[in-house]
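note to self: dont lose this again. the chain is below, predicted strucutre after it. 87 aa total, dont forget to put it in the shared folder this time
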Amino acid sequence: MSGTVVQPEDPSEPARLTVDALEVLDAALLPVLHDMVVERYGPYVVVFDPDRDAVPVFTAFGKWVGEAESPDAIGDLIDAYEKGGGR
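---
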């Protein structure tokens, strides 16, 4: 990667990075999900793992929502996230 870092005049503001070029050195390996199931709940994605009761929940864009204690608690977790409470 090459680019330029610019320090703003106001020190309370963050520095700005302008990227001129980005080189991909190698593709990342995708994990094999074997017995896991990835399922959509509207704009949310959940991952069911048969070895765990807890269910990780993300937005479709990959933002962490939280971990439901069980599949039955997914709706409650999403409701809390949408109300700004999160977990």
